[in-house]
Amino acid sequence: MRKRAGEKEKEAGGFVAAVILAAGKGSRMGGDVPKQFAEAGGRTVLSYTLEKFEKHPGVEAIIVVCARGNAGRVREICAKHGISKLRAVVFGGETRRDSSFAGVRKAAELAGGEDGIVLIHDSARPMVTEKIISENIKMAADSGACVTAARAIDTTVTSRDGKVIDGVIPRETVWSVQTPQSFRLSLIMKAHAEYERRLAAGETAEQVTDDGGLIRMLGLPVAICPSDNDNFKLTVPGDIDRLRSALAVKFDRERPEENGGQHNA
Ligand code: CTP
Ligand code: MG
To answer: How do residues 5-50 score in pLDDT, each as one tens digit?
Structure first.
């Protein structure tokens, strides 16, 4: 019998949870509220991100990580946009890694000791696609760890003094790391525990800036799920306008009859 979209991914990894990181302050973006609560096209950024995981048939549970004081706001957004897969709202920490660990711990608890997959995603990356989510689930089930990444567009150079170029990195070897970053739950739990152990022992040599970095810290491979710059992260003020334009193009594509049959892309 033919399987519905998503059933295959579900079978591949058992329990599949999405951890949505929304505990950041958005200091580079500025504004009255952290960027995940900013508005574009009449809705909050977070609502678009949540909807992508709500609609994906391979995702079973959603966990939102937010700052203390924003749980009510998160629950309101979920209720308003019909996010029925919301299973928990947990509090994040000072760093992105702290927030990520809080979400992953909750995912492991919800999995109840079962094998499972966790997708960790930035709330500030609302243009993630169904295809990227599907591929993350599959790659995490197959290889244990994957990060979404886009090939570098610009030539990348190095400069130690910040004044003169002292090297060029071949562009075909450079990737920009994005999210989702997805893992077998047992593996990412082990990586966080080892990071904390090293931190307590004063051993952390390298700076780990993303979840994939924790797996590399263990000396294990991390697969790349190829993406592009449409899956951008809202970071600086101009990115809100970029999101508005991206949403307008998408709306025109999905509802051409409301746009006089014209495609605006
Ligand atoms: N994040 C988080 N907890 C933190 C820091 C970041 O959950 N302590 C989340 C953010 O909410 C964001 C994602 O991680 O969705 C990516 O981080 P980033 O773009 O750096 O967001 P902020 O840290 O909020 O922004 P900034 O660095 O400009 O302050
Ligand atoms: Mg940050």
So the answer is: 555 544 555 899 999 999 999 999 999 999 999 999 999 999 999 9
C-alpha 118/C-alpha 138 separation (Å) is 11
Distance 93 CA to ligand 2 centre (A): 12
In angstroms, what is the span from residue 59 Cα to ligand 1's centroid?
23
The ligand with the least distance to the CA atom of 234 is 1
Measure the N-to-C terminal CA separation of the chain; round to a whole number of Å.
Answer: 38
Q: Which ligand is nearest to the CA of 94?
A: 1
144 is written with which tokens?
Answer: 């244990």
Q: How far is the CA of 29 from the centre of ligand 2 (A)?
A: 10
One-letter identity of residue 56: H
Q: Cis ω on the peptide bond leading into residue 180 (within 30° of 0)?
A: yes
Binding-site residues, ligand 1, Cβ < 6 A = 21-29, 34, 36, 65, 92-96, 99, 122-124, 233, 235
Look up the pTM and report it: 0.92
User: Considering every ligand atom, which ligand is closest to the CA of 28?
Assistant: 1
Nearest alpha-carbon partner for 212 in 233, 187, 231, 237: 187
How far apart CA 61 and CA 75 sit, in angstroms, is 15
Half-sphere exposure of 176 (CA within 13 A, CB side): 15
Give how far the C-alpha of residue 29 lies from the chain's centroid of Cα atoms, to the nearest Å: 18
